[in-house]
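Follow-up to my post from last week.
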Amino acid sequence: MSSAQIYDTIGATYTVTRRTEPRIAARIWAALGDARTVVNVGAGTGSYEPPDRDVIAVEPSALMRAQRPAGAAPCVAAAAEELPFDDQSFDAAMAFSTVHHWQDPIAGLREMRRVARRMVVFTFDASDTGWRRFWLTRDYLPQVATLLVGWPSLPELARAIGARIEPVLIPWDCADGFFEAYWRRPEAYLDDHVRRGCSVWARVGPNAEQRAVRSLREDLASGRWAKRNRDLIALDAAELGLRLLIA
Ligand SMILES: C[S@@+](CC[C@H](N)C(=O)[O-])C[C@H]1O[C@@H](n2cnc3c(N)ncnc32)[C@H](O)[C@@H]1O
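User reply:
Got it. Predicted complex:
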C-alpha cells in the first residue's frame, strides 16, 4: 500500500491528536526566512503552514485534503516526486513529517529544490543509532528497523538538496501527537487514538502493535518502564533523532 493510500485509510482520525506544536512551528517559520511564497509538500491538514505567507499545499491523499480546515491554504492533489509547478516558482518549499512516506524521497527532495530557492524539511535519523534512541522502538517495537531497510540515510537526504542538519529536541508536552511526541507520557501509547495518528503502527501490522501495547502495559504496571527510563523523567526535552534539513 502506498503512503497516500495508507493515509486514505488511517487518516480519518488524524486531527484527534495531530496539530501544530508551536515551538517546532517557530523553528520552521524562522528557517523559512523572508520567503513570501511557500509550497508545503505532503501538507496533510496543514499544521505547520505559516499564517503570514502565501502558501500552496500539495497533498496526495483525498481524505487528508478533505480535513483541511476552512480558510486553509489552497491544496493541489499531487505527490512530491512530481510537483506540478514551474522551476523556481516559490521562494521556499517545506515538508513536515512526510519525506519518510514518499516512494522516492531523493526524487521528491530534488523536486522541492527545482521549484523553490529555499528548503525546510522536518524528518528523522533513520540509522540504527537514530531509532534506538527512543525507548518505544528500542524496547517494544524493534520491527520498525525492517521498515527502515533501504531508507536513505540522513546525510544522503541532506546531500540531495545541499542542506545543513539541525537537531530538534522534542518537548515533553509536545502538542502534535507524532510518533515520538509522548516520550515522557508512555501511557499515551496505550490509547488507540494516539496510535491511529501515526502510520508506523499501521505499517508494522496488528500483531506487532498488540504485542508492543501488551508489553508496555505490563511494564508500566510493574514499574519496569519507570526503572528503565528513570533518566527521562527529569528531562523537559529529548533528543530522539528528529532533524531539520535547511537549504
Ligand atoms: C504524517 S502526515 C504529515 C502531514 C503534515 N505535513 C503534518 O505535519 O501534519 C504525512 C503526509 O504525507 C503524505 N504523503 C504520502 N506520500 C506522499 C508523497 N509521495 N508526496 C507527498 N505527500 C505524501 C500523506 O498523505 C500524509 O498526508
